[in-house]
Amino acid sequence: MKQRLSIIIIALLLAVQAGYCRGFDSVFNEFKKKEDVTYISMPPFVTWLGKNLGGVNDVPMADKVKSMKMLVPESRCEPLINMINNTDSGCEELLRMNDDGDVVKIWMDSKGDKIKKLYLLNYSDSECTFMELKGDFKKSDILKFVNESNNK
Q1: DSSP state of 127
Q2: Reduced to 3 states, what is the DSSP secondary structure of residue 105?
Q3: Which of 10, 49, 63, 118 shows a CA-CA span of 20 to 30 A to 145?
Q4: Cα(49)–Cα(17) distance, rounded to whole angstroms?
């Protein structure tokens, strides 16, 4: 009986962990130290300043972003892309698009109807960018952003 109960508890813990988005922290931690990679981190205060002083009112969803991190390799993109693709983030893939070699992938970490983090990877033959946006987004905000982008 104890063994069966232990197995059930372990199975429940694994099921809970399977739905948990661990994110891409390992990717940021490894690549932010590299010399040929530009790493940008905007904490909540700097993001708040940018929204209030920078005139980003016309940028969709800008008011929802709390903080941001970005990696931009200056030379080779393959190591970054390979690590992202091989990382088991546990996040839900929201979008995958390939337009003539220009690839965009978006993952999300959501809690109910709220999206807490968005991860964006954009790469082509010559350049790539990987971003993490933290905030309180709704799925309807994402749909509105996509619809507005399509109408331009």
Answers
A1: -
A2: strand
A3: 49
A4: 36
Given a cut of 80, whether residue 127 has pLDDT beyond it is yes
Residue 89 CA, distance from chain mean position: 10
Span between the terminal Cα atoms of the chain, in Å? 63
For tokens 């932010």, the residue is 32
Proportion of the chain above pLDDT 90, given as a percent: 27
CA distances from 91 to 5, 18, 21, 108, 126 (A): 29, 10, 4, 6, 27
Query: If you ran DSSP here, which 8-state letter would residue 91 be given?
Result: P
**146: its two tokens:** 């996509």
The domain spans of the chain are 24-150
Tell me the C-alpha to C-alpha distance, in Å, between residue 46 and each of 31, 65, 119, 135: 22, 11, 19, 14
The reported pTM is 0.77
The residue that leads in pLDDT, 34 or 51, is 34
Query: What strands lie across the sheet with 92-99, from one edge to the other?
Result: 37-42, 65-73, 128-138, 114-123, 102-111, 92-99
